[in-house]
Every structure is written in structure tokens, then in C-alpha cells.
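Rotation project, supervised by the postdoc (A.L.). Task for the rotation student: set up a whole-complex structure prediction and record inputs and outputs verbatim in this book. Inputs entered:
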Amino acid sequence: MNMLISLQFLQHYWWFLIALLGALLVFLLFVQGGQAAARWIARSEEERNLVLNATGRKWELTFTTLVTFGGAFFASFPLFYSTSFGGAFYVWTAILLCFVLQAVAYEYRRKPGNVWGARTFDAFLTINGVLGPLLLGTAVSTLFTGAPFTVDRFNLAEWAGEGDAVISQWATPWHGLDALANGWNIVLGAAVALLAMTLGCQYLMNSVADETIACRARRCMLPAALGFVACFVAWLVRLLCAVGYAADPATGTIHAEPYKYLHNLAAMPYVAVVLLAGVLLVLRSIRMGWRGSRKAIWFGGSGTVLTVLALLLCAGWNHTAYYPSLVDMQSSLTIADSSSSLFTLRVMAWVSLLIPFVAAYIWYAWRAIDRRPLTRDELREGGHQY
Amino acid sequence: MISDYLQTVDWSRAQFALTAVYHWFFVPLTLGLGVLVAIMETLYYRTGEEFWRRTTRFWMRLFGINFAIGVATGLILEFEFGTNWSNYSHFVGDIFGAPLAIEGIMAFFLETTFIAVMFFGWGKVSRGFHLASTWLTALGANLSALWILVANAWMQHPVGCSFNLQTVRNEMTSFWDVALSPVAVNKFLHTVTSAFTLAALFVVGVSAWYLLRRREERMARKSIALASAFGLVFALLTAATGDQSGAVIARVQPMKLAAMEALYEGGQGAPLTVIGWVRPDGRPVNGEIVRYKIDIPRMLSVMSFRDADAYVPGIRDLVYGNAKYGIMSTAEKMARGRVAVGELARYRAAKEADDRETMTAIEAEFDASTPEGEEFLREYFAYFGYGYLESPEQTVPNVPLLFYSFRVMVGAGMFFILLLAAVWWFNHRDRLAEKRWLLRLCIWTIPLAYLASQAGWALAEAGRQPWAIQDLMPVSVAASRIPSASVCVTFFLFLALFSALLAAEIGIMLRQIAKGPEPEKE
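Outputs recorded:
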């Protein structure tokens, strides 16, 4: 059994889990999307409370997925963690700030004595709703477009003092803001933000039993969805035509390969099928949403998970550099040279067997309290609410 | 003038300390109040009394206000390992990352899923399911503490790992050595029991406020009865685990012990300083750092090694060595560390020159399975981190800070035991309401509990300096290479944000306490 679980297998397995967590995170960004859309969907105080209580009941799940995504990335591919987070400092810090604002805003927004007033906390939710997905999408796009860094593990042989012993160095003083210089990163950021809003509207149509909210959510969904499709298709076409970095399986040497991501889909047709199925499900959910179906979120959500999963597999599997370096090709990170050791990946593989159990209890617990959609009457009854 | 990178190190330390301090304002209450609320709900479940339902819901509301901001600051802490401490993340990510991932998978989802049932499930799920959810939330919170403390303990006492020359990092060789190291076990028990004590003091203090105002007297008295007994048990356990911590520190971090005792000259039958005045610069005059002190003879030897005659090394012995007791000087450790770092440089040069012979020789040195490798790793690589230090004195942490932190923590801990015992006794005898001075004291003890808890962490973390990982990596090579001005800006940004959120949290908490529990049902 242990023989079968080789380092290569575990690297692929953990990249799959990272991709899955990333995919679930993008789906769960519907919370952010709902927050961003609230200003169009909710026009009275009561409507605003209705919308934010519906999204608020899921915020912790999105947040926890983000934290676990970070923790799992750290544990399985620590070199990415140290290179990207320590290098693209400004972007990751901005993302963190966005999420900190969200964590307190729900709980505090309507509580008496909150010092800064409900409007401030609602503004926090809007900032998180718009900027959170936008920045996350922009940052994730660099997994395909690359970033200006170098990695030399033996820098640790240098003396301390000037920072020469730091193994991952950023080649520009912009520390992550350079991602904004590549328009395609922003296009993916915009696509993720608009997708989140689309899913947010679909979620509200499902979770709030109110004609007015459902009707406005439906109308708000369409421009967001069309914007998303335009941005995403443009980005995807560009990706499939782009030059990617490939690693030689025998030597680990990195070289540029035209149409690398298109080749990946051809080499891994099952990933192409997942991508296609995901895109079709998202398109179907938009159609269903426009027709007023409450079930659109299930199609949109599963489609999002499949699409993002396929794209992230495409970024890391098939000997692809999942974090290309724009200044030193050989510094580019692949799952083979940036992972944890065989021992650590094995230990965590055992722990990962808990994941289906975790998914099952989340499903069970949520079904128990979320069977009926939220209504104005429920809010008027009192009880714990945001 | 120190380099920009070393300024980055300082600002990164400040930012991490700031985040950790704010995080720790909220976490202990979450850990302990979660359990207390679960016990209250169990009483409701067993008795079916509306009183316990109302009481549970009141304390649960305060739990919720506190919970959110702990989550927010926790997110920043996790990612700061990457953003601010990238070299650290690479060097030990293979070991350190695993507990963080396990924490996410095993604890965070448990906590966040069932906290939703806890808050929104009243009347929607069965009473049994609701009670189970409340217990699972408390379990999730405490499990998350377990894993992050395992990670922290590893930084204090790196075990269960070996250095891989090819990847230039430490890699895990035994998960159980990491998870069950004496430092990890003790740190978890000490931290969690102290958190339970803090939460008990919070419940006692808030309830005392109601008694002083003659409001909600039944809820206040019952809450005090429960929390004081709970707190007393865990305060005693905190003292016991704290005592054990001292013994563990004496073995694995002798410099931390010497610094917190401000013990410059070591000796046999070392005394424990109860209190004294520490010279602000932490430097000795005539071999003494502490003046006007009150000592308990031989007590430090007893606490450290369970032997009144045991030798306890002082700062001077650890820095300059003591041949009589077989203590190597820091200068010697630095020389050996430099050999280890130098071998890394030689390996790099050999690799670049494709000098196979040299590479093979150095690979053998780093191979624990060969006798020469075993010797090199034990005699040289064990001091790897010392190779980056510039002077032996750098290994001395901030003595006054440690000395006073330790005494604030222990002194306050002793006081908590007495206070909780007195409160429990007077409440049991139905005389607590008359003791208005005691009730006022209970209220003022709440901030003291937070101060003591923070002092404990100041001792643990400032006492680890200059190490990010004890003996293996000093903070001066652990940070990311980002401009110091950037980290300075984010430091003040976080300071402003966290302070604003803390102000909101305190404002809401005070208002909710003033408002009291929901009206009683007819």
C-alpha cells in the first residue's frame, strides 16, 4: 500500500485537494457576491437585513474554506506559500484586510453600541463583496501568467543582515502590485467578482422567500452573468493560446511551450470534460436564473466547482509550472519541486480521509437548520440574527 | 544604522506580536466560555428548566460577539507566516504546515458548522441535536487550539525532524514526536486550562456586576456557582501545568528560564526570586541583575529539576560557557553553526562547478544514517542557527520583560485561585451579595485575567528570542525580503483596524451585558 503511495502520486493528490478547496472557495464566494449585489437588490432596511441575513448564515463557511485553503497550501506546497505570500505582499495583505472586515461586520452591524454605526459595517461588507473576489481572482490568475520572482534554496548559505539569505526574492519593488500591470489578471479578477455576484443572486433567489427580492435578484443577475461570460471566455481563449512553462519529467528543467494549457487538456481529456461540463452547467444556471428558477444556484455552484477544479488541475498537472517566474524560468514552481516531503504528504493524506466525513456533517447540519428559506416574518420574530 | 532588512525583521516581529496580542484578547474567552455555555445547556437539557435556557442564551450571545473578531485576527496570523516570514515558511513548512492544515480540516469546520446550529438552530433542531452542536463548537475551538499549540511548541523545541540537504529545509520524520512532544502536551494543557480560568473569571465578574445592581440575581448566582467551581478547578490545574512548564523549559530552553529569573550567575541550590527590581538594561552589576529582591532558597532548583541541590545555569554560564558543568559557550556554538552554514555554501559552489566528489563528501556529512553524518549533525548542524548570529550576547532575550511577565502571570494566577475559592465559598453560604467589596473585586479581576494571559504569551514568545525556531533559525534570517517601510505601514494599518474593531467589540459587549438576558417568558 505504502509503495503505491509514491511521492509523485501524493503531489498530484494534494494538488487535486488544493484545486478542490480553491474551487469550493470560488463557489462559496457567492456570499461576497450577495453582499456586493445587496445595494441593488435591497432598497429598504428590512430588505437589506433579509439579504444580509441570508448571506450571513454562510459567511463562516467561506471564511473557513479560505483559511483551510491557505493552511493546506502551506502544508503541501510550502515553497509556493513562502514565495507568493512573501513576495506578492501587497496583494495578499489587501485580500486579508478585505476578509477581516467581513468577519466582524455581520456580527456587529446591528448590535447596539457598535461604536462605528451600521453603515460602516455595511460598507465593510460591500468592500469585502467587491474587492475580495476581484483581488483573489487577480492573484489566482498569476498561477497562469506568472510573477517576477527568483528562488534559490541555497541562499540560506548567505549571511544574515542584508536579506541575502532569503530564498524567495521578488525582482520588482511592487511586491504583487505588478500583477495589475497584466490586463489578463484583472480580466480574471473581474470574471471571479462577476461570477460571485451571479451566484450571489442565484443564492438569494433560493434562500429568501420573498417575491420582491427574488425579482430584483433575477434582474441583477443577468448583467453580472453576461459580464462574467464575456470576461471568462476572453480569458479562457487567451489561456488556451498562451505560452506556458513545462517541466521536463526526467530533469525538472523548465522550458516554454506554446499552447501548453491546450496541450494539457488534450493530454488529460478527463480534465477537458470536467471543464466543459462545468462551463455548460454555469451557462445553464444563468438561463435557469433568468427564468426565475430557485434551483439555479445548484447548477451554478456545481458548474463553478467543476470549472475551477479543471482550470487548477490544468495549471499544476501534466508537468506544468503552476507558478511561472517571469524573471528566471528555472525558478518557476512545479508540484514536483515545491511540495512537502513524502512523509508529510503521507501524514496529511491520512488526515485528508476525514474530508468526506467533514463534508457529510456540514451537509447534515445545514439541512437541519436551513430547510425553509428565510422570510421577513422570521426576521420579525427575533432570535439570533445579523 | 541597521540594514533595511533587519528593520523589516523588527517591524515583522512587531506586526506578528500585535496580531497575536489582539488574537489572544478573544481566543481564551472563546475556549472557556464555549465549554461553560455547553455545561449550562446540558443543565437545561437535563432539567428542562426555562431558566437554564435563558441563561445559556445570554452567555451564548456574549460568546458570539467575541467569536467573530477572534476568527478575523486568526486569519491574519495564519497568513503572516507566509507574507512576513517567508524564509521561515520554507525552512520549516514541511513540519509546521501540517498542524495548520489539520487544524483547518479537523477543527475549523467543526467549529463553524456547529456554531451556526448553536445560534440559528434554536427551535429548528431537536434539543439533543442543539446540545450536541454546542459541545461540538466548544470541542472544535479547543481542537484548533491543540494544533496551533503543537505548531508553536515545535518552534520552542524542534523535534521529530531532520535536515534535507537537497531541499535545504527541515523535514518531518515522526508526526507523533511533533504532536506529543513534552513541550506540546504541556503547552496545550497550560494554555487551555488558563483560558478556562479566564472565561470563568469573566462569567464571575459579569455576574458580580448584576448582583451589585440587584438585577438578574438568580442567573448571576447560578452562573457564579458554576463558573467559580469550574474556574477554581482549572486555576489549580493551570498552576500544576505551569509548574510542569518550568521543568520542561529548564531542560529545553535554559536561557528562557535564566532570563525570566534574571539569574546571571548559575549555581547549585538556586533560589527563586519572588519579587525584586530588575535593572532596566538587563545587564549585571557585580554579577546581579536584580536588586532589592526577596528569594526563596533552593526553590528554583526544585522547580526546575525537582532537586534542591540541582545546578541551574545562569545567563553568564549559557553565554560564556561553564566547563565545570559541561556547558558549551555561545561563541563555540556560533563557530560550529558557521561550519554547518559554510558546508551549505561549499555544497552550493560544488553544485555550480559540478564537483561531484565534494558534493558526495558533503552529502555524507548531512546523512544521519552514516557515523560521520550522525556526528556532523549532532556536533555542528545542531547549532545551525547560531551560525547566523553576530555576537554571543544576542542569545539573551529581554530580561526585564520576561522577569516581570512571569511574576505578573504567576502572581495573578495565585490571586485567581484565592478569589475563586472565596467567591465559591461565600456564594455557597449565600453571603456573596453582602460582600460588595468582593463583587467589585470580581469585576476588576476581568482585565487582570487578560493581562495575566497576555503576560504568559509574552514570556513564551519573547523568551524564545532571538530564535524563530530554537537553535535552528534566528528571526534575523526568517523574515521575507520586503521593504521595511511596507511592513511599517501594514503594522499601523492593522493597529488602527484591530483597535477600531476592539472598541466596537467592547462597546457591543458592554451594551449587551447592560441589556441583560432576554425577557422571561410568561
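Student's summary: Strands of chain A lie at 149-151, 168-170, 243-247, 254-258, 321-323, 333-334.
Supervisor addendum: Chain A touches chain B through 80 residues (CB under 8 Å).
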